Each structure stands twice: as structure tokens, then as C-alpha cells.
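Can't attach files on this board, so I'm pasting raw text. These are the components:
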Amino acid sequence: MTEDCLDRVEEPIPAPADNEVLLRVLSLSVDPTNRIWMREEDSYLPAVEIGAVVRAAGLAEVVETKREGFAVGDLVLGMPGWQDYWLLSGDDMANVIPPGLEINDLLSIYGGTGVTAWFGVEDICALEPGDAFVVSGAAGGVGSVAGQLAKLKGAGIVVGIAGSDDKCRWVVDELGFDACINYKTEDVAARLVELCPEGIDAYFDNVGGEILDAALANLAIGARIAVCGAISTYNSDDPIGVKNTANLIMKRARMEGFLILDYLDRFLEAILGLAPLVAEGKLKYATEVVDGLENAPATLNRLFTGDHTGKLIIKLSERA
Amino acid sequence: MTEDCLDRVEEPIPAPADNEVLLRVLSLSVDPTNRIWMREEDSYLPAVEIGAVVRAAGLAEVVETKREGFAVGDLVLGMPGWQDYWLLSGDDMANVIPPGLEINDLLSIYGGTGVTAWFGVEDICALEPGDAFVVSGAAGGVGSVAGQLAKLKGAGIVVGIAGSDDKCRWVVDELGFDACINYKTEDVAARLVELCPEGIDAYFDNVGGEILDAALANLAIGARIAVCGAISTYNSDDPIGVKNTANLIMKRARMEGFLILDYLDRFLEAILGLAPLVAEGKLKYATEVVDGLENAPATLNRLFTGDHTGKLIIKLSERA
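---
Top answer:
C-alpha cells for the assembled complex are below.
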């Protein structure tokens, strides 16, 4: 995506009609899926239309309200999109957040990022003690938490795959992964065989493409692949094909996609699981906060160039 | 595979030692997996070694026995391989078959073929009434049974994919499929969208490659893909890559490989399910019997050129 795909427009701050709420946007979550929604075709949500506000999850504070259940000053988690003020109407997803939680945590470890990692490891990978666990995008928001959760849940070995030596050092030295493969300088397929000589029991895939193919080539019998993301393909009209799907047969393996949207009614379960680990300092997560909506396009692109570690958040304004 | 990969060797008929059984081979099952076992690398079974007998399932009759549980004249289902006489020793898989069943049925509808279709539809596709069900290799041994089972279990639509108009006519007119796509002359992806406008709920894949990719492009939310075979890839060192795996995320879909070897202890369950359907004439299956072991290599190759309908069996000799 180039910046000339987007336009910055100034408009008057809208006034809420009956049953609407006006909110000032505080922070926006920067997620690979933002780019999916900008594709021409619909995905799991309708494509963002030409002329519409870029869709994004975020936190906002109520400024004026004509709707029951929302009071001025309330903190709301929802889909404000890339704008300074958000007019919330009937059907929009929005949850008032109880006070006392750190704003950046709500968009990272207790938001889609941490909760995605939780259900990917628990439900889709169905991690068992002793498993050889591999995660790509290991230094990203989701991947860095997924690897730590796997380790805490008793994985025999946790291997990350990331795009720089610095990232690899971070996940091994700071987050406690057992090993990390730099896919830009190492032969991923060969290293996976070395590190997981009995095969991979659970692979948490954030990238798709060639790295998914390397993991498919080295599965253990009964392996589970959680397909969480395919960031290597989102910017491409002609993604690299995966050649080793027949290995799913040989290894009686399962490959399953999931979306955190399907777990909205189970968020609390994940938060209750994550909170003690955070409180005891057993779960580390990096958050980089970028100031200013004008930096949103360039920040989103950094997800695709790999130029970031941990969760990216755009900050628009402070709480009143 | 070319015939010069193989050698026909005459050797004396062996005499069974203690705990061994000598059998005369009656029939051999011709399966795509025979080709997998001939690849250089190990698969779910060790690769067939240079100089060894080609591995294949089949039926044989006991000629001489020095092992308890086997009597002269017993019919035995196991892995005799491509040879006229089979010396059964300790660890070989072998089951004595009760009398009264048709020999060709034991290698087709009640053998790996029908039972694979049964568990693929029941367990892996987890077929629900109303599902849009698609099967590739639809005129093959497994595919032709899978489509009929899906129909009998209440699928909303059953679509086959096969390689000739004759095969398509057979599965629609004789087997009761709702539609069939000739992948050699039609645009599979476009036809799948036409035939399953709400997306495919269950796809039974026997071929992999481009056809798998077309199915992945048109999944319904919550779709299940049973990866039973990938015949388009077995003869290739550089198979065509599958580009649409990211759709597993968008559609929260599951793709799972399976092998009938893992269901050996549940064969009876499938046979008890299949037998009444066969008896009532609700389940049709084609069997082509080719005479003579010398025709085995050419017959195996016909699986890959698509030059067959239904189950291929090589007949070596009659029961005594």
C-alpha cells in the first residue's frame, strides 16, 4: 500500500443524533488484518469502500452521548477507524471498559493480540506438554505472546521464526524461546529439521507462503497448524504457492484457520488466563506507540517490511 | 513411473519355516499410495527398497502353513505385494477373512477404498445435512463412494470433479451426484462458484494441486477439507503450489489429512455402515479387474493418466 491510496480529509466534528455517541479516539491498533480489509474483494468483513474511513480497532473516550449505557468519559473499545472523532451508531461493535486497566494493554495483551495468541495456542494448536512448537512472526504482537504461552504450558521446545538477528535475540534472550531462526539469512527448512528432529507437533502460522511450506515439510504425526495470519501474501496478487500440503496426509495433520472475531464471547476466559501471567511477570510483551494519525499509513506498512518488534499502536490523544 | 524402473524375477517358491505361512496371491489392490511408497523418501511407511517386491495390499490363499491361526485354504487380506506367492512372517499385517464375501468387494467397497470414503465423509468432513459437498477424483474408487455416501447422508448438493465427460456422466447418471465438473475442459474455480454459490461446506480431496486451490478459493465459513490424496503431486518433484491457504483464515476452515491405516481398529464400524447400503442397492461401485501380474505397472500408471473408472484390481489366480 502506498500513501497515495489514502486521503486526509478535514470535516466538522459530527453531533450525535438519538441513540448515537460521539467519541474522541485515543489509540488505534495496527494489525495485519487492516490491510486485508483494504483489498478489493470482501474478506471475513466487507471490503472498506473507496471514500470510507480506514477500518481499525481502537480505544475512544465518550465526549457526548445520546445513548443509554454510555456516559461522558467512558472508555470504549471498538472499531473507530482512522479518524480523530468517532460517531458510534446502533450496530457498531463497542464495549465500555471498566476503569483501572492500562490503555496500551487493552490494545495488546488483553486485546485482539494477546487473546488471539491465547486461543491459537489453547484451542487450535491444542498444545500438549512436550510438544515441539514453532511460531512464525515470532517477534510480532501475536507471535511473541504465542511462543511464551507455549513455553509456559509445557512445550518441549519453542522455536521462533523472525526476520532479523535482533528480533531473534529478543525472543530468545528476553522472552525465553529455546531458539529462533532468522528467515532472511538462514535455511528455514533445514533449521526446522535440526531443531525439531522428531517433527513439529504444533505450528502457529502468522506468515503463510514459503515458511508455511517449510513447516509442512517437517510435521510430526498428528501435527496441528493454527493458521492465524498469512502476512507474506496480503500485499501480493500472486502469492507463492504451498507445495507440501500432501504432507498433511502422510502425517495425519490438521491445518485450521481462525479469527478472533469468533471468540468475542470468550474474551474473558483468555483475559483471566493471561492476567496472572502478566501480574507474575511471566509474560512479556513489547508495545511501540507511534504518535499521530498522520503516521498511520507508514506504521501499517512497517508490519509488512518487518520493521518493528511487538505490538504497534497509533496514539491520537490523551484521556481528558 | 516407467516400466524400466521394475524388474520381473523368477525365483523358487519358498518353503515356510516355523511360524510362517505360504500363500498364493489371488488379487492385488491398485492404489495411488503404491506410487508414494516407491518414492525415494520414506512416507507414512518406509520407502520400498531397491530390489524389494513392490508393496501392495491384496488377497491371498493359504497353501502351506506352519503358524497357528492359519489353515490351508484360508483367505487372507494383507500386503502380499506384486508377487505370485507370499511368504507371511511374524509381523506382517494379515487378517483371515470369513467365507461368503465376494473377493473383489473385499479389495474395494469393504477394503481400503470404501472404508476410506466412509471415514473421510463421516469423521474428517463431518458431513451435516444440507452441506455443499465436493469431491475430486469423483470417478475413482474412493471418490465415487464418497460422493454417494454424502448424498445418502443428506448433503444439499454433491458435486464431483473428474477428468472426462464419460466419467462425469457416470457419476451423475449412474451414481446420483447432482453435478460433475470436467477439469480438463471446464474452469473448475468458476464452476464451483456457480454450483456452490454459498461456498463449499465439505471438500473431499483426492488430487491436491490446482483443484485443491480452486476449492480453497470458494469455501463456506466453517468448511472442512478431508485431504485423502494428492494424486496430482505424486509423480512430480515440483508440484504446483497451493496459493489460497489464507482463505482457511477468512473462512475459519479446517483442512485435515488422514490415512486408512489409522482406522484399522474401526474397519468393522465402516463395513457395518456400508453393507446395508450395498445390500439395498443404494451404493454403486465399479471394479475393473485386469488379468495378470505382468500388467501391474501399466495398470498402476492408469491411476495417474486418469484412464479408469472406479476401482482397479489385478487378478493373479483363482481360488483353489
